[in-house]
Amino acid sequence: MAEVKRAYDASGRRERAVARRLAVVQAAQELFERDGFRSTTIAAVARTAGVSAESVYKGFGTKAALAKAVFDLVIAGDDEPIPVAERPEAIAIQAEPDVRRKLALYVEGFAHRQQRSAKVQILIRDGRHVDDTLEEVWQNLQTERLTGMTMLATHLHSTGQLRPGLPLDETRDTLWTYTSIDLYDLLVLTRTWPLPRYETWLTNAITNALCP
């Protein structure tokens, strides 16, 4: 009976720790987007989340690391520990036999991820010019995106349906360029394109670049 109680207590502590971490990340997102990175303090994040500043430092280490955690949350849309490759969207893309439809499915999900994450991406992109602690975070985002586009490019090439003679690295770099936050910033945030228009344009642009 004591072993069951200890297991229950440990499970409860883990659940509370996960809930506190989520509250901190959500508080940081709110304050970053409202006040900016430099003006947001760890103390303010802690107050908003209802935890101690010490626990925030213990959980994340730096404010820059907290910004990365915010990005990870908004890009996924949840805090579930499910790898990207195992999520339903990725499974559907893998299973789709037609490469053009694969691209359309990918862009559909990607456009909504950009919409969710645009503010924090731009905060990190632009903030690194005035706060160099964000430079490493920005470079990590670019590296992660390049890794993702390498995986997608490799999968697309495996279909044998791309433009004949198209090098794998060109496919990867084309995808990497079109998925930059800069294009979303220019077209959706600056030129005020509705999301469906951006999604259609992006699908056509990538398809025309990669397919016969």
UniProtKB/TrEMBL annotation:
<keyword id="KW-0238">DNA-binding</keyword>
<dbReference type="InterPro" id="IPR009057">
    <property type="entry name" value="Homeodomain-like_sf"/>
</dbReference>
<dbReference type="InterPro" id="IPR050109">
    <property type="entry name" value="HTH-type_TetR-like_transc_reg"/>
</dbReference>
<keyword id="KW-0805">Transcription regulation</keyword>
<dbReference type="Pfam" id="PF00440">
    <property type="entry name" value="TetR_N"/>
</dbReference>
<dbReference type="InterPro" id="IPR001647">
    <property type="entry name" value="HTH_TetR"/>
</dbReference>
<dbReference type="GO" id="GO:0003700">
    <property type="term" value="F:DNA-binding transcription factor activity"/>
</dbReference>
<keyword id="KW-0804">Transcription</keyword>
<protein>
    <submittedName>
        <fullName>TetR/AcrR family transcriptional regulator</fullName>
    </submittedName>
</protein>
<feature type="DNA-binding region" description="H-T-H motif">
    <location>
        <begin position="41"/>
        <end position="60"/>
    </location>
</feature>
<dbReference type="GO" id="GO:0000976">
    <property type="term" value="F:transcription cis-regulatory region binding"/>
</dbReference>
<feature type="domain" description="HTH tetR-type">
    <location>
        <begin position="18"/>
        <end position="78"/>
    </location>
</feature>
